[in-house]
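Q: Given only this backbone (236 positions), what sequence would you predict?
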Protein backbone atom coordinates (compact mmCIF):
# COMPACT_ATOMS: atom_id res chain seq x y z
CA UNK A 1 0.00 0.00 0.00
CA UNK A 2 1.08 3.58 -0.58
CA UNK A 3 2.37 5.71 2.26
CA UNK A 4 0.53 8.72 0.85
CA UNK A 5 -2.76 9.16 2.73
CA UNK A 6 -3.40 12.92 2.74
CA UNK A 7 -5.74 13.66 -0.24
CA UNK A 8 -3.74 16.78 -1.12
CA UNK A 9 -0.54 14.77 -1.12
CA UNK A 10 -2.13 12.08 -3.27
CA UNK A 11 -2.76 14.81 -5.81
CA UNK A 12 0.65 16.41 -5.70
CA UNK A 13 3.02 13.57 -4.96
CA UNK A 14 0.96 10.42 -5.44
CA UNK A 15 2.26 7.49 -7.39
CA UNK A 16 0.96 7.10 -10.95
CA UNK A 17 0.63 3.60 -12.36
CA UNK A 18 -0.44 2.99 -15.94
CA UNK A 19 -2.31 -0.21 -16.82
CA UNK A 20 -2.06 -1.25 -20.47
CA UNK A 21 -4.65 -3.85 -21.47
CA UNK A 22 -3.22 -5.74 -24.45
CA UNK A 23 -4.86 -9.13 -24.11
CA UNK A 24 -7.50 -8.73 -26.83
CA UNK A 25 -7.70 -11.01 -29.84
CA UNK A 26 -7.92 -8.12 -32.29
CA UNK A 27 -9.83 -10.08 -34.89
CA UNK A 28 -11.17 -6.94 -36.58
CA UNK A 29 -7.64 -6.07 -37.64
CA UNK A 30 -7.39 -9.22 -39.77
CA UNK A 31 -3.65 -9.73 -39.18
CA UNK A 32 -4.02 -13.19 -37.63
CA UNK A 33 -2.27 -12.22 -34.37
CA UNK A 34 -3.50 -10.24 -31.33
CA UNK A 35 -3.48 -6.62 -32.35
CA UNK A 36 -1.16 -5.37 -29.63
CA UNK A 37 1.56 -7.49 -31.27
CA UNK A 38 1.06 -6.20 -34.79
CA UNK A 39 4.05 -4.06 -35.71
CA UNK A 40 4.47 -0.54 -37.02
CA UNK A 41 7.95 -0.10 -38.51
CA UNK A 42 9.09 -3.28 -36.80
CA UNK A 43 7.92 -2.26 -33.31
CA UNK A 44 4.85 -3.80 -31.66
CA UNK A 45 1.91 -1.56 -30.87
CA UNK A 46 2.30 -2.60 -27.24
CA UNK A 47 5.91 -1.44 -27.14
CA UNK A 48 4.99 1.87 -28.78
CA UNK A 49 2.19 2.43 -26.26
CA UNK A 50 4.51 1.66 -23.34
CA UNK A 51 7.25 3.90 -24.74
CA UNK A 52 4.75 6.76 -25.00
CA UNK A 53 3.76 6.36 -21.36
CA UNK A 54 7.41 6.37 -20.26
CA UNK A 55 8.24 9.35 -22.49
CA UNK A 56 5.40 11.37 -20.96
CA UNK A 57 7.53 11.62 -17.81
CA UNK A 58 4.44 11.46 -15.57
CA UNK A 59 4.14 7.69 -15.04
CA UNK A 60 5.98 5.95 -12.18
CA UNK A 61 5.22 2.35 -13.14
CA UNK A 62 3.68 0.51 -16.09
CA UNK A 63 1.75 -2.77 -15.83
CA UNK A 64 0.89 -4.46 -19.13
CA UNK A 65 -1.78 -7.12 -19.39
CA UNK A 66 -1.26 -9.69 -22.15
CA UNK A 67 -2.44 -13.15 -23.23
CA UNK A 68 -1.02 -15.75 -20.80
CA UNK A 69 1.02 -17.48 -23.52
CA UNK A 70 2.86 -14.24 -24.38
CA UNK A 71 4.10 -13.23 -20.93
CA UNK A 72 7.69 -14.37 -21.49
CA UNK A 73 8.11 -12.91 -24.97
CA UNK A 74 6.60 -9.59 -23.86
CA UNK A 75 8.95 -9.40 -20.86
CA UNK A 76 11.92 -9.69 -23.18
CA UNK A 77 10.59 -7.01 -25.56
CA UNK A 78 9.72 -4.35 -22.99
CA UNK A 79 12.08 -2.14 -20.97
CA UNK A 80 13.21 -3.40 -17.54
CA UNK A 81 10.83 -2.45 -14.76
CA UNK A 82 7.64 -2.87 -16.78
CA UNK A 83 5.42 -5.47 -15.09
CA UNK A 84 3.67 -8.07 -17.22
CA UNK A 85 0.58 -9.99 -16.07
CA UNK A 86 -1.93 -12.32 -17.75
CA UNK A 87 -5.25 -10.91 -18.98
CA UNK A 88 -8.73 -12.40 -19.15
CA UNK A 89 -11.51 -13.16 -21.59
CA UNK A 90 -12.93 -9.62 -21.67
CA UNK A 91 -11.27 -6.24 -21.44
CA UNK A 92 -12.87 -5.72 -18.03
CA UNK A 93 -11.22 -8.95 -16.79
CA UNK A 94 -7.86 -7.80 -18.13
CA UNK A 95 -8.05 -4.42 -16.39
CA UNK A 96 -9.07 -6.20 -13.20
CA UNK A 97 -5.89 -8.30 -13.43
CA UNK A 98 -3.89 -5.11 -13.86
CA UNK A 99 -5.54 -3.52 -10.83
CA UNK A 100 -4.50 -6.49 -8.72
CA UNK A 101 -0.88 -5.85 -9.72
CA UNK A 102 -1.03 -2.11 -8.97
CA UNK A 103 -1.75 -2.06 -5.25
CA UNK A 104 0.64 0.81 -4.61
CA UNK A 105 -1.06 3.25 -7.00
CA UNK A 106 -2.52 6.58 -5.89
CA UNK A 107 -3.51 7.60 -9.40
CA UNK A 108 -4.24 5.13 -12.20
CA UNK A 109 -4.19 5.46 -15.96
CA UNK A 110 -5.76 2.85 -18.20
CA UNK A 111 -4.35 3.03 -21.72
CA UNK A 112 -5.19 0.73 -24.63
CA UNK A 113 -2.20 -0.78 -26.39
CA UNK A 114 -4.19 -0.27 -29.58
CA UNK A 115 -3.73 3.52 -29.23
CA UNK A 116 -0.06 3.07 -30.05
CA UNK A 117 0.55 6.56 -31.49
CA UNK A 118 -0.87 8.53 -28.54
CA UNK A 119 1.28 11.66 -28.11
CA UNK A 120 3.03 11.75 -24.69
CA UNK A 121 1.82 15.34 -24.02
CA UNK A 122 -1.79 14.05 -24.00
CA UNK A 123 -0.81 11.54 -21.30
CA UNK A 124 0.78 14.36 -19.29
CA UNK A 125 -2.38 16.47 -19.62
CA UNK A 126 -4.54 13.66 -18.19
CA UNK A 127 -2.26 13.33 -15.16
CA UNK A 128 -2.11 17.12 -14.71
CA UNK A 129 -5.93 17.22 -14.48
CA UNK A 130 -5.89 14.47 -11.83
CA UNK A 131 -3.24 16.32 -9.86
CA UNK A 132 -5.33 19.49 -10.14
CA UNK A 133 -8.19 17.75 -8.32
CA UNK A 134 -10.29 15.82 -10.86
CA UNK A 135 -11.24 12.27 -9.89
CA UNK A 136 -11.82 10.89 -13.40
CA UNK A 137 -10.48 12.33 -16.65
CA UNK A 138 -10.97 11.13 -20.24
CA UNK A 139 -9.65 12.57 -23.51
CA UNK A 140 -12.51 13.13 -25.95
CA UNK A 141 -13.10 14.46 -29.46
CA UNK A 142 -16.26 15.63 -31.23
CA UNK A 143 -17.67 13.07 -33.68
CA UNK A 144 -17.84 13.92 -37.37
CA UNK A 145 -20.43 11.29 -38.35
CA UNK A 146 -24.05 11.54 -37.34
CA UNK A 147 -24.66 8.66 -34.90
CA UNK A 148 -27.88 6.56 -34.89
CA UNK A 149 -29.13 4.09 -32.36
CA UNK A 150 -30.61 0.95 -33.94
CA UNK A 151 -32.51 -2.16 -32.86
CA UNK A 152 -31.43 -5.77 -33.46
CA UNK A 153 -32.92 -5.71 -36.95
CA UNK A 154 -31.11 -2.53 -37.92
CA UNK A 155 -34.12 -0.22 -37.71
CA UNK A 156 -33.19 3.26 -36.51
CA UNK A 157 -34.51 4.01 -33.04
CA UNK A 158 -32.99 7.43 -32.51
CA UNK A 159 -30.56 10.15 -33.57
CA UNK A 160 -28.70 11.66 -30.60
CA UNK A 161 -27.85 15.34 -31.02
CA UNK A 162 -24.37 15.27 -32.54
CA UNK A 163 -23.10 18.34 -30.73
CA UNK A 164 -23.55 16.50 -27.43
CA UNK A 165 -21.59 13.40 -28.51
CA UNK A 166 -17.89 12.77 -27.96
CA UNK A 167 -15.65 9.87 -28.97
CA UNK A 168 -13.51 9.04 -25.96
CA UNK A 169 -9.91 7.88 -26.03
CA UNK A 170 -7.28 6.66 -23.59
CA UNK A 171 -5.40 7.11 -21.35
CA UNK A 172 -8.33 7.48 -18.98
CA UNK A 173 -7.18 8.67 -15.57
CA UNK A 174 -8.67 8.07 -12.12
CA UNK A 175 -7.88 8.27 -8.47
CA UNK A 176 -7.01 4.70 -7.55
CA UNK A 177 -9.72 4.58 -4.90
CA UNK A 178 -12.46 5.57 -7.36
CA UNK A 179 -11.42 3.11 -10.08
CA UNK A 180 -11.15 0.27 -7.56
CA UNK A 181 -14.63 1.03 -6.22
CA UNK A 182 -15.99 1.12 -9.78
CA UNK A 183 -14.50 -2.30 -10.57
CA UNK A 184 -15.67 -3.75 -7.25
CA UNK A 185 -19.23 -2.73 -8.16
CA UNK A 186 -19.03 -3.80 -11.82
CA UNK A 187 -21.51 -6.59 -12.47
CA UNK A 188 -21.32 -6.49 -16.26
CA UNK A 189 -18.90 -5.60 -19.00
CA UNK A 190 -17.92 -2.12 -20.11
CA UNK A 191 -16.11 -0.90 -23.20
CA UNK A 192 -14.34 1.82 -21.24
CA UNK A 193 -13.33 2.34 -17.63
CA UNK A 194 -15.02 5.69 -17.21
CA UNK A 195 -18.33 3.93 -17.94
CA UNK A 196 -17.91 1.86 -14.77
CA UNK A 197 -17.10 5.00 -12.77
CA UNK A 198 -20.25 6.68 -14.13
CA UNK A 199 -22.32 3.68 -12.99
CA UNK A 200 -21.32 4.27 -9.36
CA UNK A 201 -22.12 7.98 -9.65
CA UNK A 202 -18.57 9.24 -10.24
CA UNK A 203 -18.13 12.53 -12.08
CA UNK A 204 -16.07 12.08 -15.23
CA UNK A 205 -14.44 15.11 -16.83
CA UNK A 206 -13.45 15.28 -20.49
CA UNK A 207 -10.38 17.05 -21.80
CA UNK A 208 -9.64 17.69 -25.47
CA UNK A 209 -8.24 14.50 -26.98
CA UNK A 210 -5.80 14.11 -29.86
CA UNK A 211 -6.55 12.59 -33.29
CA UNK A 212 -3.26 10.65 -33.05
CA UNK A 213 -4.65 8.76 -30.05
CA UNK A 214 -7.03 6.89 -32.39
CA UNK A 215 -7.63 3.20 -31.71
CA UNK A 216 -6.03 0.99 -34.34
CA UNK A 217 -8.87 -1.47 -34.88
CA UNK A 218 -9.51 -2.06 -38.59
CA UNK A 219 -7.20 -2.69 -41.58
CA UNK A 220 -7.83 0.94 -42.61
CA UNK A 221 -6.69 2.18 -39.19
CA UNK A 222 -3.57 0.04 -39.51
CA UNK A 223 -2.77 1.45 -42.95
CA UNK A 224 -3.09 4.98 -41.53
CA UNK A 225 -0.96 4.13 -38.50
CA UNK A 226 1.74 2.58 -40.69
CA UNK A 227 1.77 5.64 -42.96
CA UNK A 228 2.10 7.92 -39.94
CA UNK A 229 4.80 5.76 -38.35
CA UNK A 230 6.83 5.85 -41.54
CA UNK A 231 6.59 9.63 -41.68
CA UNK A 232 7.98 10.04 -38.20
CA UNK A 233 11.05 7.95 -37.43
CA UNK A 234 10.34 5.58 -34.55
CA UNK A 235 13.33 4.01 -32.80
CA UNK A 236 13.60 0.23 -32.94
O1 LIG B 1 -11.48 -4.86 -28.18
P1 LIG B 1 -11.10 -3.44 -27.96
O2 LIG B 1 -10.61 -2.77 -29.20
O3 LIG B 1 -12.09 -2.62 -27.22
O4 LIG B 1 -9.82 -3.53 -27.02
C1 LIG B 1 -9.26 -2.39 -26.42
C2 LIG B 1 -7.98 -2.79 -25.70
O5 LIG B 1 -8.30 -3.72 -24.66
C3 LIG B 1 -6.94 -3.43 -26.61
O6 LIG B 1 -5.66 -2.88 -26.32
C4 LIG B 1 -7.05 -4.90 -26.26
O7 LIG B 1 -5.83 -5.63 -26.41
C5 LIG B 1 -7.47 -4.86 -24.79
N1 LIG B 1 -8.19 -6.08 -24.37
C6 LIG B 1 -7.69 -6.85 -23.31
N2 LIG B 1 -8.32 -8.02 -22.93
C7 LIG B 1 -9.42 -8.45 -23.59
C8 LIG B 1 -9.96 -7.69 -24.67
C9 LIG B 1 -9.32 -6.48 -25.04
O8 LIG B 1 -6.68 -6.48 -22.71
N3 LIG B 1 -9.97 -9.61 -23.21
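A: Predicted residues:
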Amino acid sequence: MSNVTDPAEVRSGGRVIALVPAAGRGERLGEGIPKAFVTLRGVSMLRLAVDGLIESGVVDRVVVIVPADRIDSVRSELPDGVDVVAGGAERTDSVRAGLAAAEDADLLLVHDAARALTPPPLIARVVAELRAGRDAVVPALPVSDTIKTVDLLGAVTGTPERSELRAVQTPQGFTADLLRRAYAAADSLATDDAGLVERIGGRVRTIVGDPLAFKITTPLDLALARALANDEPIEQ
